[in-house]
Design brief:
With about 400 residues, the protein is an alpha/beta fold. The protein is built from 12 helices and 15 strands. The strands form 2 sheets. The protein has a 9-stranded mixed sheet with strand order 14-13-12-11-7-10-9-8-15. Strands 3-2-1-4-5-6 form a 6-stranded parallel sheet, sandwiched between helices. The protein binds nicotinamide-adenine-dinucleotide.
Length: about 400
């Protein structure tokens, strides 16, 4: 029990799109938290925000992390800066929740996890899709054996973006400033969910492919796919894109006793098989060469309302009680998707299957090459309020 105690939060990158979202949750939501200080390098937006909220604001990370009225800090800067932010926070003895993805590169991601552990801080990552009760219900169904042994998971994510989107955000769509495209920006929530449902780990090996089909204002990939296998034998196929449209975000989990589909955050299909697929395969004696066990539609599982602030509440409980288990998604769990994303980049670049985790040094070499050889893109810089656009 934490009584009436509240965690006093600060935010780094507070005046950006997601920084404002966190500020809203921490000031308007009901939870064991309050917002006491904000920090952003954009001085104009920072001053406006601090004034509006009536709290302390600074452009200096060092000043924020040193404050006595701040217990925990959310890092909401672009991903290549997550590691530096997280390390500054934990070195100052505070707990930290970073935005997704953990970082842009494996070296940064592993470095920030090491720092959290070395300083014995509570570290979380903001994968708020996991606050959706559908995710936890699906995981429960898998754990209880309701779907039998899980054979495979198929994931599709479509998040169409125009060239205008890339022309707005200075760092988006650039190898140097973002470290990738759809895989590292739009798809991490779905890749995290895939790892969570398939195995609660990163895959063991995969083969990836990415390309830029037609986004002229972006240097990075707008389409990516991968196939691979998790350490528990679950096979996966993944297809994510900002180039296709009219599709959904979909997870299809196939077990030997049943299957579920989650589409746009809701259960849309649940079936069970009259007989386990493996038993049927080994015992059916004909005469129909195409026979399979009868597929029985089931009522869709019922779940409660989605509370996106659950992730903040559970992180705050973990901070107050010093119990990491209270967190919904720990920073260490953020490595599952991070290692997957980085392995897909490297696999496609090398043109071969890779085992995970990939070499951090080899990854740095690849990224340096991609940055050095990135094609010039035409993108008018629009440094204005409209620059704060959706991911
Ligand atoms: N969880 C989600 O659904 C979600 C949604 C959007 C963005 N994100 C993640 O949040 C991060 C930020 O994305 P965004 O869309 O808010 O970007 P943004 O450009 O709108 O905001 C980033 C903010 O960080 C500030 N900043 C940059 N470097 C800084 C530094 N060193 N110190 C202090 N402030 C600094 C910028 O001035 C800007 O205000 C990204 O990693 C992105 O992937 C997550």
């Amino acid at each position: 029990m934490t009584g009436n105690r509240k965690v006093r939060f600060g935010i780094i990158g507070s005046a950006g799109l997601i920084g404002n979202y966190h500020a809203d949750i921490l000031t308007k939501g009901e939870g064991p938290y309050e917002l006491t200080a904000v920090c952003d390098i954009n001085e104009l937006r920072l001053r406006n925000q601090a004034e509006k909220l009536g709290i302390f604001g600074t452009t200096q990370v060092s000043e924020l992390v040193a404050r006595d009225d701040v217990d925990a800090i959310i890092v909401a800067t672009p991903h290549p800066f997550h590691a530096a932010g997280v390390i500054a926070v934990v070195e100052a003895g505070k707990d930290v929740m970073t935005e997704k993805p953990l970082a842009a590169t494996p070296a940064d991601a592993r470095r920030l996890i090491k720092a959290i552990n070395r300083k014995r801080r509570i570290g979380a990552v903001h994968y708020q899709s996991r606050a959706n009760p559908v995710a936890r219900k699906a995981r429960q169904m898998i754990d209880s054996g309701e779907l039998g042994k899980i054979i495979s998971i198929r994931v599709t994510g479509s998040y169409y973006k125009s060239d205008y989107y890339y022309s707005l955000g200075g760092w988006r769509g650039m190898w140097r400033d973002e470290g990738g495209g759809v895989l590292i920006n739009q798809a991490p929530h779905d890749i995290d969910m895939m790892c969570y449902l398939a195995a609660e780990s990163a895959p063991a090996e995969l083969a990836g492919r990415w390309t830029n089909l037609y986004h002229d204002a972006s240097q990075v990939e707008d389409f990516a796919s991968a196939i691979g296998v998790f350490p528990n034998g679950v096979q996966f196929t993944l297809n994510v894109s900002v180039a296709t449209h009219g599709d959904a975000r979909r997870f299809e989990v196939f077990g030997t006793a049943g299957a579920i589909t989650i589409q746009d955050g809701k259960f849309t299909r649940y079936v069970r098989f009259e007989k386990d697929l493996v038993d049927f395969a080994h015992t059916y004696e004909g005469p129909d060469p195409y026979a399979g066990p009868v597929v029985q539609d089931q009522p869709l599982p019922e779940v409660g309302e989605n509370d996106p602030s659950l992730i903040h509440k559970m992180f705050a409980e973990a901070v107050l009680t010093r119990k990491k288990a209270k967190m919904l998604v720990s920073a260490a769990d953020g490595l599952w998707s991070q290692e997957t994303i980085n392995a897909i980049y490297l696999s496609s670049y090398l043109g071969k299957k890779v085992k995970l985790p990939v070499s951090a040094a080899r990854y740095e070499k690849m990224l340096a090459d991609l940055i050095a050889n990135a094609r010039p893109v035409s993108r008018p810089q629009r440094e204005s309020e409209e620059g704060r656009i959706a991911r």
